[in-house]
Amino acid sequence: MLRPLIEERFDYFARKKKDPSLVKNEPNDMITWLARAVTDSPVSGTIAYEEVAIHYMFLSIAAIQTSMASSTHFFLDLMSSPPELGYYERIREEAAAVFKTEEDWGSSASVTKLTLVDSALRESLRKNVQLTRGLMREVMPKDGINLPDGRNLPQGTWLGIAVQGVHSDNRFYSNPDKFEPFRFAKMDPVSTETQKTPITGNDGINTGKGSSERKNVQLSTTSDIFLGFGYGRTAW
């Protein structure tokens, strides 16, 4: 099913590589990105269409699975919250204020204005981690690494972090077992304190316990106390 489409995209980029003047409205999708990357690769002649199709299907399954789980948890968390707190109504009001025209629905700038939605999604990811073990790393030095307590971890040992433990630690989050959808948004009279002894910026946004540098708390922002997307160079 994918082979004809992949062949068509590869054929186009191969011809464009030989003739840069060739112009076509390229679909802005993953197949186009893969075809462009492979065509520009020095080993493009050794990559079969079947390999690209397999990678595409793998990435699609991973994206769909995590998106479905995240959205399901989000709605369950939101709709099971006490009705008197009005979380659902406030999110609807925010969306109605942002999406006023048909053009707004297709604008990425509109999405950045959904402060409460962004915070609620991040809070749901905090409570419902995708992986029980995160930040998986392999010990690479031949002599291993020495821990502060003196123990040596030999080469080849795999290490990981208990993500749920970090997300449920009351040193980082007040009422960690409670779903507070606006925890990461601006300080709000409806929500309780965003994090235990938080430091806030001039705009009132929580910056994280003990760190004046932790100013950005958007959904996709990684930190050492929010590991929903990993942390460091390999965060996804």
Provide a concise account of the structure shown.
By secondary structure, this protein is mainly α. The protein has 8 helices and 6 strands; from the N terminus they run H-H-H-H-H-H-H-E-E-E-E-H-E-E.
Please explain how this structure is put together:
It is built from 8 helices and 6 strands; from the N terminus they run H-H-H-H-H-H-H-E-E-E-E-H-E-E. By secondary structure, it is mainly alpha-helical. It is about 40% helix and about 10% strand.
- Helical content (DSSP H or I, runs of 4+): 40-55%
State which percent range the strand residues make up.
5-15%
Low-confidence stretches: 187-216
Cα gyration radius (Å): 23 Å
What count of helical segments does DSSP give?
8
Mean pLDDT: 79
Along the chain, the helix and strand elements come as: HHHHHHHEEEEHEE
Strands across the major sheet, in which order?
1-4
* N/C terminus separation: 29 Å
Secondary-structure content class: mainly alpha
- The backbone outline, from C-alpha atoms, is flat
Number of strands: 6
Main sheet properties: 2 strands, antiparallel
